[in-house]
Amino acid sequence: MTRTLILACLSILLVASIIMRPDEAFQASLQGLTVWWNIVFPGLLPFLTLLELMLAFGVVHGFGTLLHPLMQKLLRLPGEAGIALALGWTGGFPCGAEAAAALRKADKLTVKQGNRLLALSHMPSPLFMLLVVGTGFLHRPELGAAIVIVVWLAGLLPALIAARLAKREAAQPEARASSGLLHRAAAAMRAARERDGRSFGKLLGDAVTVAVYKLMAIGGFMIFCAVLVKLLEPVMPAVIPSFVLPGLIESHIGAYAASAAAIAGGAAWKAAAVAAVLSWGGISALLQAGSAVAGSGLSVRKLAAARLLQSAAAFLLMITCWKPLSALMNGLSPAAATFAWQREELGAGAASPIRAGDLHSLWPYMPALLLLFVFATALLAFVSILTAKLRLR
């Protein structure tokens, strides 16, 4: 009862704030809509549709059999978890959460396995970090690559530790050769397809409908959080850095704010702040994950704790590894790095306001995202088959 009253009061306050400041709320909603349309929609639409098709055609089941040796050895998860990892690490929020929830609802994961997979697969889009953050916000493409590396490592290291501490589940029987593994994968794929039974036309229509419906819900969360950031800005104490509030609530806007802010400590601390914001993901990403995992038994609270841990780990990793990362970046692109240093020294005096027009579009990169997913899945399958062969020797 108390929780209901608190939520009702907060809702009334939010509506009252929007009525009192309609112009700010409208501009913030346009900003959230722009972020959703230019970045999230093109990044997620092919993957959410692909997930539904892969489940119906049995591709998830087939690759699950192929990836089982690697996933069991590395993360103590069933092979299907590899598909969720590939989707989450290429598609971004909340594609990994959708895949983890689908596997949990299909009884491919226990609740504990599902929570560990959810924490590992709920990742920001790599193209957003590389192109939008690195090239567009920071004007340093190589720094975007460094942020990707740090964010992924900050998520992978806790997952590896948790896997070592987790109890080993009963493993599937190993094939006696790689050909046996391939035969079992084909059989699993065929059986799953027969269980589904829908025609291709019906399946494609259902997949697109479900994907667009989920994207509309995601857009609603993002617009709501963008408005919330704008309405809370006047009550934030001046001693708190300007990027903290948007970073806490919405990671896309928070990453822009951290990139534009004048942060003491130079490029290292600015990159660490951006990596921490992206690793946390914001309340918006947690709401998206909560919508995805509803009814699956997976815990959003545990996901939030994992995101906080990953955010702290990303910040510390960036600060700790800044010198070797800088040396690597200067070796890869000395001219770009020199230009970026000069630009930062000239423009570090004041943070520019967050503008929706500064958020670049990912629509032209949809094919590249799909190719990245195919490459990641094929690489995982190759390593898994190799792992199975080595274990048989």
UniProtKB/TrEMBL annotation:
<dbReference type="Pfam" id="PF07670">
    <property type="entry name" value="Gate"/>
</dbReference>
<keyword id="KW-1133">Transmembrane helix</keyword>
<feature type="transmembrane region" description="Helical">
    <location>
        <begin position="267"/>
        <end position="287"/>
    </location>
</feature>
<keyword id="KW-0472">Membrane</keyword>
<feature type="transmembrane region" description="Helical">
    <location>
        <begin position="43"/>
        <end position="67"/>
    </location>
</feature>
<feature type="domain" description="Nucleoside transporter/FeoB GTPase Gate">
    <location>
        <begin position="40"/>
        <end position="128"/>
    </location>
</feature>
<protein>
    <submittedName>
        <fullName>Nucleoside recognition protein</fullName>
    </submittedName>
</protein>
<feature type="transmembrane region" description="Helical">
    <location>
        <begin position="117"/>
        <end position="137"/>
    </location>
</feature>
<keyword id="KW-0812">Transmembrane</keyword>
<feature type="transmembrane region" description="Helical">
    <location>
        <begin position="203"/>
        <end position="229"/>
    </location>
</feature>
<feature type="transmembrane region" description="Helical">
    <location>
        <begin position="365"/>
        <end position="388"/>
    </location>
</feature>
<feature type="transmembrane region" description="Helical">
    <location>
        <begin position="143"/>
        <end position="166"/>
    </location>
</feature>
<dbReference type="InterPro" id="IPR011642">
    <property type="entry name" value="Gate_dom"/>
</dbReference>
